[in-house]
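Table 4 source record.
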Amino acid sequence: MAERPAEEIVLLDTNAVLLAFTSGVDLVGEVARLRPGATVCVPTTVLGELDRLAARATPFARAAAELARRLPSIPAPGRGDASIAALARRLGAAVVTADRALRDRLSADGIPVLYPRGPGRLSEYPRAVRRVRSATVKNAPPVRGPTGGRRRVRARRR
């Protein structure tokens, strides 16, 4: 089992902060369960987005903004998912998000992701496995796949 850094940081995405009110997830408690000793932080871009949502009277946005302000904040340039991904990459931090596209992008970049799985519960998203290039075996007979299509047997490159 690989060791984690001495002071691990876990960043919250906007939809993750809203989860505390929409799904009843205890964010700090769940992060502590999955990543003991980690510090939960909120990027400044998330604080700004929550303020904009609260100004538009989005349900739970005002309460989510108040919750986020109680947690340590980290300055993050830019806006949106790109700024969270860049900050997580720079700090080597994990991210809590319910956004599937962001989850997949972070995972492909090797950034640990926690996501909601079931009521009031977070789970660790599996990291993307980089595919090993394979070479087609010459003169191999065609093999029928599960969909009935024809494909060639592939051997792993060493």
